[in-house]
Amino acid sequence: xxxxxxxxxxxxxxxxxxxxxxxxxxxxxxxxxxxxxxxxxxxxxxxxxxxxxxxxxxxxxxxxxxxxxxxxxxxxxxxxxxxxxxxxxxxxxxxxxxxxxxxxxxxxxxxxxxxxxxxxxxxxxxxxxxxxxxxxxxxxxxxxxxxxxxxxxxxxxxxxxxxxxxxxxxxxxxxxxxxxxxxxxxxxxxxxxxxxxxxxxxxxxxxxxxxxxxxxxxxxxxxxxxxxxxxxxxxxxxxxxxxxxxxxxxxxxxxxxxxxxxxxxxxxxxxxxxxxxxxxxxxxxxxxxxxxxxxxxxxxxxxxxxxxxxxxxxxxxxxxxxxxxxxxxxxxxxxxxxxxxxxxxxxxxxxxxxxxxxxxxxxxxx
Length: 366
Prior knowledge:
- Residues 175-236 form a coiled coil.
- It is found in: Cell envelope.
- This protein is α+β, with helices and mostly antiparallel strands and 366 residues long.
- The chain has two domains: 64-108 and 234-361, Efflux pump adaptor protein, beta barrel domain (Elongation Factor Tu (Ef-tu), domain 3), CATH 2.40.30.170; 110-231.
- Helices cover 45% and strands 24% of the residues.
- Strands 1-8-11-10-9-12 form a six-stranded antiparallel β-barrel. A four-stranded antiparallel beta sheet has the order 5-4-2-7, with no helix packed on it.
- Helix 2 (110-167) packs antiparallel against helix 3 (172-202) and helix 2 packs antiparallel against helix 4 (214-231).
- The longest helix is centred in the first third of the chain and has 59 residues, at 2-60.
- The N and C termini lie far apart (105 Å).
């Protein structure tokens, strides 16, 4: 019995594992088609991606030109004093917003008030001088009339002496004296007329300032200049904007006329100056749309358009322009400044000098 049972056990030991392992051998057969499809998709997708990328670059090739050599620009007004003097008041601080006409700083006005008083005194003196000339001119008229009367009397005396001389009832000395008196009276009349003409000439107004004596006009001009200088002791903002470089303004400092005292950045008009290579400008035209990215604000993109082209390359307006006439030179691709107008309001403040990237669609129109 024992021997009879052994084959049965052995058969079970052999057949049982075969029944258990049969499903395991069937699983790879089911997954094999699935893995085959994945392999086919992978093999096909790589060429399709390469073809798609190549097609994109082929279609967009030459449509866009871009540069990262671009900067935000704003109008900057350099404010200087028209008169010199000591600063007595500073009304602004760095980065403060000001409106047009706001007081920036004040220069000591006392020397200029004194100049105004001196100019007023000079004007009054000129008016007195003119009135004196009028009086003298009127007096010269009386002198002329007196000289004419003296001539008439001398003429009558000369005629009488001439008649007596002809009849022999007078001396030759009396005759000569009467003749000399007549000539002297005529000379006095000529002198009076010349002095009257001179006085009249001093009262003339002239074509440049009609209706006003030159002395008075000159004194009035000096007074106007003094009043203007006094007004200029108050330096006010010429345009609205943000104050910059105001740290140089300190009460007590001496300021020289004409030298920049501070700057005002006018923020109501902002643009981007993009320096494109000269080889990129073949298809760029005014009005073409552009996209602006500001480096300081990640993800910010602004719409704009080509506004204008610079009149010269950057090197042409440099302090030391290149001199290539000696023959020892290397050709360098030049940069041309292109002004890009911003067509929409920025949600972030645009600060003058910020770096930007500009892309121009050379096939589009604004």
